[in-house]
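ESCALATION

Customer reports they have been waiting on this structure for their group meeting. Please prioritize. Original submission:
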Amino acid sequence: MQAASNTLPTLFLSAQDVAHLVHRLGLPATLERLAATLYADYLRWPDFDKSARVASHSTDGVIELMPIADDTTYAFKYVNGHPKNTQAGLPTVMAFGVLADVDTGVPVLLSELTLTTALRTAAMSVVAARALARPDSRRMALIGNGAQSEFQALAFHHLMGIDEIRLFDTDARATAKLLHNLGALPGLRLIPCDSVAQAVRGADIVTTVTADKTNATILTPDMIEPGMHINGVGGDCPGKTELHPDVLRGASVFVEYEPQTRIEGDLQHLPADFGVTELWQVLAGHATGRTRATEVTLFDSVGFALEDYSALRFLRQAAGELGLGQALPLIPALADPKDLFSLLRATAPQNTTHAKPQAARLALAA
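Update from on-call: job pushed to the front of the queue and completed.
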């Protein structure tokens, strides 16, 4: 679809466009390029104007806005988290995002971010694990087998060499769904388990990706083994946790943006003086990640706006390479930018009589 002559074109990417993008690039290449974009942007951490997301909480969920900007580009994501949505046939998480030019404010990209959020979350998990997990990690436990689980499994398999994943979910149908989707993938062994304890036993990496809005203790200290890397990426908000506080106390804890994680992450249960390290400092070489093979490391991830900025930046570049998306007539282009009313005049009904055009002008002014 071509943009109308009286509009400024904004590239629009639908969920189908993003799915086509992934198919054409290949999922491993998509995840690798996302991881590379995330890594590059995290190295520019001081360049960004950052803030914790703005959240509106309700009984059954949360709606959030996640803004961020550097000196050239502004980005935001609208995202919800409603765990009960699946009972009504809706996704737990739905999202869209915008990239805009800082100098003019023109939105240059409007994109779906429901599918993309799952991809960028998985890629971000790998960015953290490459810095924090043992390099010889090959076995992972995946606790929570819902909508994001396949993406986590594939990212760790293709980008980290994980070849065995032990699965557990309180809903056996979720595990069956994951096995159906990935069970035939060569080189990846999937093992359904009857409990969290069974799944994490002997794991090098433990990924928790649950969604229930409750203070849960999915992992307890007795389950943690020396050398584990814990990837805590389940949906987070105040009053929602996945880990027993003593799991954090026994680990070296790394976060995205500390002010946000202290409100939303598993870190919310610990005092303000409990020490953590922002991941960008490790990636940039300003702080140490894992110091020894037996150390327990924990990435208390809540999702941060920089990751959506990176994802949108990647989408815009890849869509341009592949010729995907359509021009969306979102913003009017005016001959006289001070005459917004001209847009209504231009779309008023045309008529050959003298009386009715006058009536149309009066109706516009009423």
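Sent to customer with the following note: Residues 131-304 form a domain with the Rossmann fold fold (CATH 3.40.50.720).
Escalation resolved.
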